[in-house]
């Protein structure tokens, strides 16, 4: 077998199935579209679900892909096993109701063994089959597989609950006796068992049943083929690598990490784990951020944050104490540039996000260590010598502090951690994450009725909002095709329709259906695309409607035109954001309603008021310029050459519509638009906010809604002017400034009075000096308004050199504050303010820190201040 690069293997696989009539589907974004059941795209078939469950019928029923995927359900195994990854590529070929077992098996064997393709030795290949699937077994035998290389395994049945399921065949490659890690008589020592010798490289699923809600298995109306071949595993076979990490997909990252750390891969097992974790996680975060994910505290953002922090901690184990992960992003991009050139194109943005997160983690890591020290001291003080699992989990969850590292710190102080309680907290978090997702099944049951509905239907709403004589071709009521409908709700398809079906964020049209006498027989409430692309109207039936009769279809014109204005404004907004904030911004979702528009976009950092003003002005300038909006239909490649921007949630076929607003904006779009930007009239941003880490949301209005919004704002301003007694609206700012200056003057007067009170208290308490051992101490609870007054008293104490140590406590509202100050001489003697505050702060249910000569703490228990001051005796005596 000839050695091949990962790029060659990927291309060869796709070319093989292309030669068998398959269309190559590009690798989809790792962020699922319109699928609440998935956090990430986690397999090749995940992007094909809409075809397999019948919600969409593909143009061609034979598909193949190399799909990037992420799985993080057992992230702890990464680096410790030979082939466990968070990000991986899944090669696959798929048949949607076309070919089945005969072709799938024959082609698999041809690809694997033919000298023109992979050229693997047939003697090294082993096949497992489902015992009841003798049909598949016989086909394998017909291809020439040695009968002794076919093993029946009861687990060879793919089933995820309700939905498509069926038997499968797994293909294993025998790496030879030198890879055998088990004894001869071990029950797992066989192809298909848990061992290192026989490596699973391909799984072929024969999806032929529907797993029904009642638990039964019924034959699918359309049988499918779903296969998955892990690229990383196959590359390890071709490159004769002990593990996946010694291949060209990972080694360049490992070598770069060697340069950054000064350590050598292969020197020790423990060190190698860190190299592998870093290499794996660097790939995952690079691709995930490139696809729009941003580090955060929830959802997929939390996964990215956790991967970055794990990698950083393993970098520290290798002696890397500065930000380094961002330097691996270009390395990942270079490895994958053959099939994923966009990674190198986005490397600066991805690197910026990674470095920012690394820097933030290094800061929180310092805070985490301080909190851990407080917990250790608390455990020693209460003689339990144990940190609770809840506290350890808080360290992990809030500060990214790994349990293993916390244990190392605690062990040094003879303190242990309640690991059982920690695991309980971890499990509860996983349960919360699961319940936060949709409870929908991961793949729906095929609807034979809709899938088989091949009625031709033409949409003419781009030019016509009324159609006379539209023929009613199909009526669906109660999930059955009927010839007529008299009342209630129904779904209908016409041979021609002006009603827009919801797509790309634009809501569906609404309107009326009339008979030949002009009577309204139904109201159109919603329009969606059927599996074969027809516009499927959901209607409220008012009078009897019959199949094959003609009707007049009338779109609500006012509703439609308002949506058009907002949709075109969305395109102007999208381009304006790119121009003002940078090309890294990507649409992350949109909603175009008649009353307003909502636009989500990726942007790392705050959007300033100045930038928002620039964006708003740019959109309005384009409206005032009265630019023609033109639409052309062309092929996908020609559209790309025009420079058209692909929007976030769209799925593009061979023919696409390109909407151009002069030369300002050129985008792929299937929606409806105004003919000239002047029809929009006015654009006004209503709000801008964050909806998640790295994702911002703008809500805006146009035309009449924009005028009404501005009128409301003006009325509010007039009311404010009245309250301020401002003669004109233009005088409001100066009146507000006068009020602010008055408030500032009053605040300064209050501050002076509080400082005076603090000085008077200081005069009293500074006379009360006690001696603990040979240390002079002033300790008292005082009445002040905040920490500022405590610091002022400490400054006075320092200038007067009244004692060696000063400890002050104060209740401010419902909170407690403590301050400790130590003279320079006592600092030299080893007494440090930070050490004292750490030991007494638990009495107020708080924590803190600071410099050796001054430290402060805050807590939630003001009643504990006397106990904290009293504990000073014990602290200084030791």
UniProtKB/TrEMBL annotation:
Short name of any one Pfam family annotated for the protein: DHHA1
InterPro entries for the chain: aa-tRNA-synth_II/BPL/LPL, Ala-tRNA-lgiase_IIc, Ala-tRNA-ligase_IIc_anticod-bd, Ala-tRNA-synth_IIc_core, Ala-tRNA-synth_IIc_N, Ala-tRNA_ligase, Ala_tRNA_ligase_euk/bac, DHHA1_dom
E.C. number(s) listed in UniProt: 6.1.1.7
Cofactor(s) needed by this chain: Zn(2+)
A GO BP entry: alanyl-tRNA aminoacylation
PROSITE patterns on file: AA_TRNA_LIGASE_II_ALA
Domain of life assignment: Bacteria
Coiled coil start-end: 412-439, 736-763
Residues annotated to bind Zn(2+): 567, 571, 669, 673
Main EC class the enzyme belongs to: ligase
Occurrences of domain Alanyl-transfer RNA synthetases family profile (ranges): 4-712
Localization per Swiss-Prot or TrEMBL: Cytoplasm
GO molecular function: alanine-tRNA ligase activity; aminoacyl-tRNA deacylase activity; ATP binding; catalytic activity, acting on a protein; transferase activity; tRNA binding; zinc ion binding
Alphabetic keyword roster: Aminoacyl-tRNA synthetase, ATP-binding, Coiled coil, Cytoplasm, Ligase, Metal-binding, Nucleotide-binding, Protein biosynthesis, RNA-binding, tRNA-binding, Zinc
Cofactor binding note of this UniProt entry: Binds 1 zinc ion per subunit.
Catalytic activity field: tRNA(Ala) + L-alanine + ATP = L-alanyl-tRNA(Ala) + AMP + diphosphate
GO CC annotations, alphabetized: cytosol
CDD domains assigned: AlaRS_core
Domain notes from UniProt: Consists of three domains; the N-terminal catalytic domain, the editing domain and the C-terminal C-Ala domain. The editing domain removes incorrectly charged amino acids, while the C-Ala domain, along with tRNA(Ala), serves as a bridge to cooperatively bring together the editing and aminoacylation centers thus stimulating deacylation of misacylated tRNAs.
NCBIfam families: alaS
Function of the molecule: Catalyzes the attachment of alanine to tRNA(Ala) in a two-step reaction: alanine is first activated by ATP to form Ala-AMP and then transferred to the acceptor end of tRNA(Ala). Also edits incorrectly charged Ser-tRNA(Ala) and Gly-tRNA(Ala) via its editing domain.
Family assignment from sequence similarity: Belongs to the class-II aminoacyl-tRNA synthetase family.
UniProt-listed HAMAP family: Ala_tRNA_synth_B
PANTHER family, per database record: ALANINE--TRNA LIGASE, CYTOPLASMIC (PTHR11777:SF9), ALANYL-TRNA SYNTHETASE (PTHR11777)
Protein's recorded name: Alanine--tRNA ligase
Organism the protein comes from: Pediococcus claussenii (strain ATCC BAA-344 / DSM 14800 / JCM 18046 / KCTC 3811 / LMG 21948 / P06)
């Amino acid at each position: 077998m000839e050695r091949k690069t990962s790029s060659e293997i990927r291309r060869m696989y796709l070319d093989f199935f292309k030669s068998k009539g398959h269309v190559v589907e590009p690798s989809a974004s790792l962020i699922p579209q319109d699928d609440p059941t998935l956090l990430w795209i986690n397999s090749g078939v995940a992007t094909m679900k809409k075809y397999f469950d019948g919600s969409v019928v593909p143009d061609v029923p034979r598909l193949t892909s190399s799909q990037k995927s992420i799985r993080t359900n057992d992230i702890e195994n990464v680096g410790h096993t030979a082939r466990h990854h968070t990000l991986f590529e899944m090669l696959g070929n798929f048949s949607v109701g076309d070919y089945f077992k005969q072709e799938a098996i024959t082609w698999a064997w041809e690809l694997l063994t033919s000298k023109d393709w992979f050229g693997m030795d047939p003697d090294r290949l082993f096949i497992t089959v489902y015992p009841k699937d003798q049909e598949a077994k016989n086909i394998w035998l017909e291809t020439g597989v040695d009968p002794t290389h076919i093993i029946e395994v009861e687990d060879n049945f793919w089933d995820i609950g309700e939905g498509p399921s069926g038997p499968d065949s797994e293909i294993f490659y025998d790496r030879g006796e030198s890879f055998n890690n088990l004894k001869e008589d071990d029950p797992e020592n066989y192809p298909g068992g848990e061992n290192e010798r026989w490596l699973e490289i391909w799984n072929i699923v024969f999806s032929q049943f529907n797993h029904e809600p009642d638990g039964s298995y019924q034959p699918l109306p359309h049988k499918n083929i779903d296969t998955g071949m892990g690229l990383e595993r196959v590359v390890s076979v071709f490159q004769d690598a002990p593990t996946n990490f010694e291949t060209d997909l990972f080694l360049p990252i490992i070598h770069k990490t060697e340069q950054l750390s000064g350590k050598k891969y292969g020197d020790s097992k423990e060190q190698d784990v860190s190299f592998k974790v870093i290499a794996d996680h660097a790939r995952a975060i690079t691709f995930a951020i490139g696809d729009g994910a941003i580090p955060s505290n929830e959802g997929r953002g939390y996964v990215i944050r956790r991967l970055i922090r794990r990698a950083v901690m393993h970098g520290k184990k290798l002696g890397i104490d500065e930000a380094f992960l961002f330097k691996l992003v270009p390395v990942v991009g270079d490895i994958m540039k053959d099939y994923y050139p966009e990674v190198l194109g986005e490397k600066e943005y991805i690197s910026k996000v990674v470095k920012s997160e690394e820097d933030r983690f290094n800061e929180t890591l310092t805070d985490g260590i301080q909190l851990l020290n407080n917990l250790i001291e608390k455990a020693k003080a209460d003689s339990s010598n144990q940190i609770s699992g809840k506290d350890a989990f808080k360290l992990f969850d809030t500060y990214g502090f790994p349990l293993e590292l916390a244990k190392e710190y605690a062990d040094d102080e003879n303190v242990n951690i309640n690991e059982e309680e920690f695991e309980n907290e971890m499990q509860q978090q996983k349960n919360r994450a699961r319940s936060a997702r949709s409870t929908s099944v991961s793949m729906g049951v095929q609807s034979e009725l809709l899938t088989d509905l091949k009625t031709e239907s033409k949409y003419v709403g781009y030019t016509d909002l009324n159609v006379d004589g539209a023929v009613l071709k199909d009526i669906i009521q109660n999930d059955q095709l009927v010839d007529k409908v008299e009342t209630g709700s129904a779904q209908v398809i016409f041979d021609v329709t002006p009603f827009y079906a919801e797509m790309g964020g634009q809501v569906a049209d609404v309107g009326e259906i009339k008979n030949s006498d002009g009577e309204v027989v139904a109201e159109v409430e919603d329009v969606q695309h059927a599996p074969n692309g027809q516009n499927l109207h959901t209607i409220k039936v008012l009078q009897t409607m019959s199949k094959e009769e003609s009707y007049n279809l009338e779109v609500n014109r006012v509703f439609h035109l308002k949506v058009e204005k907002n949709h075109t404004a969305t395109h102007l907004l999208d381009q304006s954001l790119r121009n003002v904030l940078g090309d890294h911004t990507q649409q992350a979702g949109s909603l175009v309603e008649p009353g307003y528009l909502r636009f989500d976009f990726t942007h790392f950092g705050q959007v300033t008021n100045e930038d928002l003003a620039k964006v708003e002005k740019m959109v309005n300038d384009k409206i005032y310029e009265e630019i023609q909006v033109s639409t052309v239909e062309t092929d996908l490649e020609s559209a790309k050459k025009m420079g058209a921007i692909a929007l976030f949630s769209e799925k593009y076929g061979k023919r696409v519509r390109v909407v151009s607003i002069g030369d300002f904006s050129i985008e792929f779009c299937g929606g409806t638009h105004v003919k000239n930007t002047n029809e929009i009239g006015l654009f006004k941003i209503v709000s801008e906010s964050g909806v998640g880490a790295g994702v911002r949301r703008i809500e805006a209005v146009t035309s009449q809604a924009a005028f009404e919004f501005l009128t409301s704002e003006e009325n509010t301003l007039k009311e404010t002017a009245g309250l301020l007694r401002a003669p004109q609206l233009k005088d409001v700012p100066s009146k507000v400034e006068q009020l602010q200056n008055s408030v500032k003057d009053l605040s300064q007067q209050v501050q002076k009075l509080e400082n005076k009170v603090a000085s008077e208290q200081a005069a009293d308490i500074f006379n009360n000096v006690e001696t603990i051992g040979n240390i002079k101490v002033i300790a008292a609870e005082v009445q002040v308004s905040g920490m500022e007054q405590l610091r002022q008293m400490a400054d006075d104490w320092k200038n007067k050199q009244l004692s060696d140590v000063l400890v002050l406590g104060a209740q401010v509202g419902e909170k407690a504050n403590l301050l400790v100050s130590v003279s320079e001489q006592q600092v030299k003697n080893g007494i440090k303010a930070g050490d004292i505050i750490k030991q007494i702060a638990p009495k107020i249910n708080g924590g803190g820190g600071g410099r050796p000569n001054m430290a402060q703490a805050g807590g939630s228990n003001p009643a504990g201040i006397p106990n904290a001051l009293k504990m000073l005796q014990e602290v200084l005596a030791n």
